[in-house]
UniProtKB/TrEMBL annotation:
InterPro entries: NAD(P)-bd_dom_sf (IPR036291). One of its GO terms (molecular function) is isomerase activity. Keywords: Isomerase, NAD. It comes from Solanum lycopersicum. This is D-isomer specific 2-hydroxyacid dehydrogenase NAD-binding domain-containing protein. The lineage of its organism: Eukaryota, Viridiplantae, Streptophyta, Embryophyta, Tracheophyta. Belongs to the NAD(P)-dependent epimerase/dehydratase family. PANTHER family: EPIMERASE-RELATED.
Length: 186
């Protein structure tokens, strides 16, 4: 098999008894292989750029449902559902799932971090919502954050960020992720 070829193996939680669940690979996990928790809009962009940077790497996408697994396979992403027990850890894990899909967002971050082998990096994609700036003024990474207890929405994000940092992961706060640049510049 050439260095740039791709082998896709996907398993569905629907088709296998729970004791048999596991994500498969061509062997062991490579130095540039990536697990994307939440391969939606942002996760798919990450996968595309990652594949450009690291051709031949394995990219896995962990999802809440199996609804989009066929699409992920066509994109070269090995899908697995959240119920799937991964049998190995990854050097790179990025968490891109929104808090709206779960009742325990911080717990989901913890589970994702447990799939990281401590090499490479673990990245949690947060939101700019925790910044204490509600007048559309300028903010930067050193700006003040909303105190815990003021807003349930920001509490969820701040608690999730803390979990990522407790695992020695990184947090990036994104703004305007789902806007059209055509709208902004027209």
């Amino acid at each position: 098999m050439s260095a740039n070829s791709l082998q896709v193996n996907a398993y569905s939680a629907i088709d296998a008894p729970s004791e048999e669940l596991g994500a498969s690979s061509r062997g062991n996990i490579g130095a540039n292989d990536l697990l994307i928790v939440g391969p939606g809009v942002l996760g798919r962009l990450v996968a595309e750029k990652w594949r450009e940077e690291y051709p031949g790497c394995q990219i896995y996408g962990q999802t809440v449902t199996t609804n989009h697994h066929d699409e992920l396979i066509k994109m070269g992403i090995n899908p697995c559902s959240r119920q799937t027990k991964l049998t190995y850890k990854f050097p790179y894990v990025i968490f891109c799932a929104p808090p709206s899909q779960t009742d325990d967002y911080a717990g989901d971050i913890r589970e994702a971090a447990l799939n990281w082998n401590g090499e490479g990096s673990f990245l949690f994609t947060s939101s700019s919502a925790p910044y204490d700036c509600f007048d559309n003024g300028a903010i930067n990474e050193d700006g003040p954050v909303v105190p815990i207890g003021r807003s349930p929405r920001t509490d969820v994000l701040l608690k999730a960020e803390k979990v990522a940092l407790d695992f020695d992961g990184c947090v990036v706060r994104l703004a305007g992720l789902y806007i059209s640049f055509e709208t902004c510049f027209s």
